[in-house]
Q: What sequence folds into this?
């Protein structure tokens, strides 16, 4: 074994050992302690906002306004999950009283709750250096329910990752959580080795479909397979009816361009396709809106390379017409500066092009698809866009009828979020949010945004006929954590 390999093994084993040591005390920590720790972490990020935003700007090229908003979102996520911990319904506590007269035969005393799975490995994203990185939603959700977190830092913002990990890790320990609650690794080999390590009990990933599939397959192929939540990208089709265009075409098309070009199109919810009726006049409005978009730096040279390659492939497909030709400029550091490109194609030509057009283009590029009269839009989504984070439907003012309700119901089978109007970019951090969708948008139907995100890092455990002294706190009769509980009382089965 080479020295490098030996050093890697020691690093991985040491990180895994610390996470394992933290697991039991973290899981058993009172909700008030975990909630206080999350709030302290949010405060630490706020206290160093200017420093952190400057670091993020230098490493990612994202605008200051965007980054300050994202940092606020990250802090809100931490505080939101602190409320989840304190309220306690996420534990889904169920108590079945012992019942000798149970309708199916004598029933023992059964008490069920959800318990943390153990150490979680979180692969940070490039395009959200705060909200989907070291202290982002995946980390916050796992910490909230009592899982130690090991973050594989993204190479696109290494200095920011180290600084955030230092601030948040210190805040967690100061609040009384164990050492090893939050750890950071930087090397790609270390991240992969940890995915294989028996101490790691679940993993989360936000990134490309190719890398996500490789990691998901590796997690499934372990001697002890583990849950792997991967967000792998999405093209987020937007469907527009003739009535909607007739009523508000200019406003709608301007909103479309703004959604495509925000943060240089480097958002997982960017609308990659806009489906409009054949014969729609859209060129002038799209060109006018796109001409006002200033150039924006892409995250790093590798992303610029990928964007340039994919745009060339898409524009080279048969039947594709350029509506607005954007630009790609390289600076002295090989960073790419871009303005939006919008193309158009018929529905038949889109079908013929297949993956050349249908695969995601990460950056400010989108395709307008013209569909013939009488097209069943739900069939088109099922055929060409079967799994996405979002599907958006723009209707006319008087189109909320039974036929449209049936369409909306069918669209829900192909996306985690169905929008009736508006634009998919901008994901509200709130209890009812679903940020996940059918394959290939994500590897499971969980969510990485909103309070339901904690469910990815929990497993059910039932205790049968256990003495009070041996039960975890939420299952004891005195309910010291004061969490909501569902009780199935003795004798109730006689009324079933």
A:
């Amino acid at each position: 074994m080479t020295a490098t390999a030996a050093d890697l093994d020691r690093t991985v084993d040491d990180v895994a050992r610390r996470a394992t040591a933290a697991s039991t005390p973290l899981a058993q920590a009172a909700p008030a302690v975990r909630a206080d720790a999350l709030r302290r972490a949010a405060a630490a990020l706020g206290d160093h906002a200017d420093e952190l935003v400057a670091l993020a700007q230098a490493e990612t090229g994202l605008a200051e306004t965007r980054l300050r908003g994202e940092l606020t979102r990250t802090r809100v996520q931490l505080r939101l999950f602190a409320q989840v911990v304190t309220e306690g319904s996420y534990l889904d506590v169920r108590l079945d009283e012992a019942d000798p007269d149970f309708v199916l035969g004598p029933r023992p005393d059964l008490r069920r709750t959800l318990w943390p799975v153990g150490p979680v490995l979180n692969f940070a994203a490039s395009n959200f250096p705060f909200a989907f990185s070291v202290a982002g939603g995946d980390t916050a959700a796992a910490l909230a329910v009592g899982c130690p977190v090991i973050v594989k830092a993204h190479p696109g913002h290494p200095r920011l990752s180290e600084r955030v990990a230092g601030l948040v890790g210190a805040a967690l320990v100061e609040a009384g959580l164990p050492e090893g609650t939050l750890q950071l690794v930087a090397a790609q080999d270390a991240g992969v080795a940890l995915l294989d390590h028996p101490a790691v009990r679940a993993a989360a990933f936000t990134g490309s479909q190719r890398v996500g599939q490789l990691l998901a397959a590796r997690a499934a192929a372990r001697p002890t397979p583990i849950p792997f939540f991967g967000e792998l990208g999405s093209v987020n089709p937007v469907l527009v009816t003739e009535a909607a265009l007739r009523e508000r075409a200019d406003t709608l098309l301007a909103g479309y361009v703004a959604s495509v070009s925000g943060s240089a199109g480097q958002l997982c919810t960017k609308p990659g396709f806009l489906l409009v009726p054949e014969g729609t006049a859209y060129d002038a409005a799209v060109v006018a809106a796109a001409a006002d978009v200033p150039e924006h730096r892409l995250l790093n040279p590798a992303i610029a390379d990928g964007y340039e390659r994919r745009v060339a492939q898409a524009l080279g497909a048969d039947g594709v017409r350029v509506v607005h030709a954007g630009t790609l400029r390289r600076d002295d550091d090989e960073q790419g500066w871009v303005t939006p490109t919008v193309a158009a194609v018929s529905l038949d030509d889109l079908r013929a092009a297949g993956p050349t057009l249908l695969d995601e283009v990460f950056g400010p590029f989108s395709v307008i698809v013209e569909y013939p009269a009488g097209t069943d839009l739900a069939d088109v989504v099922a055929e060409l866009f079967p799994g996405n984070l979002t599907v958006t439907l723009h209707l006319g003012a008087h189109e909320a009828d039974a036929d449209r309700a049936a369409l909306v119901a069918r669209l829900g089978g192909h996306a985690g979020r169905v929008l009736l109007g508006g634009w998919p970019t901008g994901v509200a951090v709130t209890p009812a949010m679903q940020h996940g969708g059918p394959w290939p948008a994500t590897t499971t139907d969980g969510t990485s945004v909103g309070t339901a995100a904690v469910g990815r890092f929990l497993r059910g455990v039932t205790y049968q006929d256990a003495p009070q002294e041996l039960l975890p706190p939420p299952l004891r009769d005195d309910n010291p954590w004061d969490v909501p509980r569902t009780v199935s009382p003795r004798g109730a089965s006689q009324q079933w």
